[in-house]
Amino acid sequence: MNTSSRFAFAVHVLALLSLQEGVPLSSEIIAGSVNTNPALIRRLLSMLAEAGLTTSQLGAGGGALLAREPEDITLFDVYRAVDEAQLFALHREQPNPDCMVGRQIQGVLVGIVGDAQQAMEASLAARTLADVTADVVRAERAQERKRRRGETG
To answer: Which residue ranges does UniProt annotate as crossing the membrane (predicted)?
Structure first.
C-alpha cells in the first residue's frame, strides 16, 4: 500500500468508527467498507492504536473503537500515525556534480519541499475527524435528496 492510500484508508476507518458512536467494529466489517482485506485493516488499526487514536474491545462483539472524541483527532494526528514519508522525495542518488543543475538542485529543492510539507501539515492540523464525518453525512444527505428528486421528478 502506498503512503497516500494508507492515510486515506486510515481516515476512512476512523470516520466509520466515529459514525458508530461507541459500537465496536471488527476488522472484517471495516474491511468491507474500505473494500480491502481484514489483515490490512488490522495493521492500520495497530498503527492507529499505537498513536492513541483507536482502542480495542476484546471478546464476543468486540472490535475497534475510537480512543478520543472525533473533535480531538486532527487529520495531522492521523497522518503522523500512519505515514513516515515526506510529501515529496528528493533524488535517491547524488546528482551529477559536474552539472550546474546537478550540483545545486538538491539544496534548492530542500527549501521548496520543506515549505510544501509545512503547508500540508498545517492544512491537516486545521481539520478534525469530526469535520470529515460531518462532510460525509452532508454529502450522503445531498445524494439522497438528489435520488428522491429523480424518483419523483
So the answer is: none
